[in-house]
Amino acid sequence: MHLLFLSSLLPDGVATTGFEIANAAIAAAYRRQGVRLTIAGFRREGARPAEAGEIDLGTIVIENAAASARQKALWLIGAVLSGRPIAAEKLARLSRRGLLERLAEAGPVDGHVLNSVQMPIAYPFLALGKPSIFIAHNVEHHSAAENARNAGSRASRLLYAREARILKRREELICRRAAVIHTLSEDDRTGLGLAGDRRAIPLALSIGRGTPAVDDGERQQDVGLIGTWSWAPNRVGLDWFLERVVPLLPGDVTIAIAGRIDGPPPGLPQTVRFLGRVPDAQAFVRGSRVVALATKGGTGVQLKTIETFEEGLPAVATPAALRGIGALPDNVGVADDPQAFAAALVERVVAERAGRSLRLDGRSFAAGQQAALDAGIASGLALFEAEQREAALTKTTDGSPSEATRDEPERI
Known about the structure:
seven-stranded parallel beta sheet, globular, alpha/beta
C-alpha cells in the first residue's frame, strides 16, 4: 500500500517539538506495517532539504515565536478574509493546481493520511477524491475554546472564540469524510464526538529513542521542564507552575525550563533559568533530578510525559499530563494542586541529593507503548482496506459512485 502523508511540516533531522516527535513515531509505525509512505509538507527556514520519499511544498514561517509583527498581522487579515483559522492560513500558500502538481511527484497512491487539521482546512480538496485516514493530534476546537477562556485581553478572547467555532465545524466535516480517524487518547475520541464510532481508533505513542543512557550522575538542575511554550495550551501549564508552585519551593531548588517561548514572565527568582530551545532534549531531561510535567489544559497527549517515562526519570505530573498513559511508573507522583505538586517535587529532589537514585529502566514502558501504537495502526489499516473494498462494491452499475460514496462539495 502506498499512502501520501500530508503534514504541515516535513521531518527536519532530529525531532524536537511534540508534533514532530509524534509524526516521526506514527510514520515509523506505518512503515513497520509495510506501508510505502510519501511525506509531503513545508519546511522551516534553514531546515534540511527534502529527502527521498518526501515532497517539499516550500519554505514557510509557522511558529508565532519566529514570526515578525507584520507577518502575524498578515496571517490574521488573511484568516479573516478567507474564513480559515490562523494555523491553516499559514499554510494556504499554494493554488489548488500548484499543490496538485507537487503532490503528483508521489505517483499513484491508495489514499491520504491527513496529519492534523491544518492541511485539509487550508486545502479542502485533500479530504476528497482519495480515501483518507485522519490523525487528530488534538481536539483543536476544545483547545481554542480553552485559550479563549484563558486569554488576557478581549481581542484575544474574541479571536480564539472565532477559531473555536470554525475549528469545530471543520473537524466535524473532516471526521465525517474520513474512512479512519486516529486520536492520541481515548478522551479525544469522546471530545470529537466519536465515542462508539468504529472508525475512531486511539493510538498510543512511543518516542523510540533507543536504549536509555547509563546514568552518569551529573545533574544541572533540580527540576526540569521542557516543551513548546509558545503554544498557548502549554503556556497555561507553565504559568501555573511559575505562579503557583515555584513560590512554594525552598529557595535552594534550582529550576531550568527548555523550549521555545514568547517571552518569559518577569519577576521570577534567580533559581529559575530559561534556556530556550536546547540542542539535546534527552541530555536536558537526564540532567534534571526530577521532571515537572505541569500540564493544566489542552487535548491530545503530552509527548514530554512519554519521553520522561521512556527514559525512566522521576517526575511529578498533573492528571492532565497523563492523558493517553496506561500504566504509571512507580517513580512518578501525581498532584493537581500547587501544595501537593511542590511537596512531591521536594521529596524527590531531597532523595536524589542524598544519593538515592529514583531512576528506572524505561524500556518496558517504551516497548508497551510501541506495541500498542503498532496495533492501533494495524487496526486502522485493516479498516481502511475493508472500507475501500466495500466502497468498490457499492458503485453503481455504470461505474459512477453511489450516493454513499460520491464526493461532497469542496466548500467547507
